[in-house]
Amino acid sequence: MTTRLPDDFYDRIKPRLHRRIGREVRLARRVLDLGCGSCDLVRYLAETYGQQVTGVDVASGSFPRRRRTADGGRFRCLRRDAAGMRFAEDGAFDAAVSMWALHEMDDPAAALREVRRVLRAGGELFVMDFPRGSLAQRLWNEDYYRPAALKQLIRRAGFQQVQLRVIERGHVMWARGYRPASTKSMKQKEPESCHG
């Protein structure tokens, strides 16, 4: 017998996922959040770990007005397309995260290639998103990835050691990958559509 999840399931698990992300990126000094929405994760990482965190999102309507932590630290929330982050130099970030946003991007493959560019060699990428067939599918009915397709998308963007697990009772995908230390052997391929 399957227990029906409440419609606010994702709101309930969000703080737990923020803590999990925080534990994973706690040693990174400079963190990028793709599709940051209202900058909740950005603020959490800056306040909890004192990191320099930059959030990017194509819509800025829900950005907080006050962008300081309680101890006076600052974080940035920028209205930008993740596929073209000209504000950041190559290797500007130690880690990048994307929580529940990759499936909404116009060109997720280009966004991931751009993340690879702005990550330092050996930098980590973490992607959390909804798998096809999850509660999110019932609630919002958007075009979500299958786990194998998301893993392939991240690999094709040039990340190595890509791992993916489905967590939270099968309703969240948790993927990670590393920017290679050397890009000499990496060839930029034009990826195929990976939603299918």
Q: In words, what does this structure look like?
A:
The chain is globular. The protein has helices at 9-25, 40-49, 108-118, 135-140, 147-156; strands at residues 30-34, 52-57, 76-79, 93-99, 119-129, 160-167, 172-178. The chain contains five helices and seven strands, in the order H-E-H-E-E-E-H-E-H-H-E-E. The protein is α/β, with parallel strands linked by helices. Strands 3-2-1-4-5-7-6 form a seven-stranded mixed sheet, with helices on both faces.
> What is the arithmetic mean of pLDDT?
88
Radius of gyration: 16 Å
What proportion of the residues is helical, as a percent range? 25-40%
The third-level CATH topology is Rossmann fold
Low-confidence stretches: 185-194
Order of helices and strands: HEHEEEHEHHEE
Strand order of the largest sheet: 3-2-1-4-5-7-6
Distance between the termini: 29 Å
Count of structural domains: 1
Percent strand: 15-25%
Structural class: alpha/beta
Largest sheet: number of strands, sense, barrel closure: 7 strands, mixed
What is the strand tally?
Answer: 7
Global geometry = globular
**CATH level 1 class label:** Alpha Beta
How many separate helices? 5
> CATH homologous superfamily name?
Vaccinia Virus protein VP39
CATH architecture: 3-Layer(aba) Sandwich
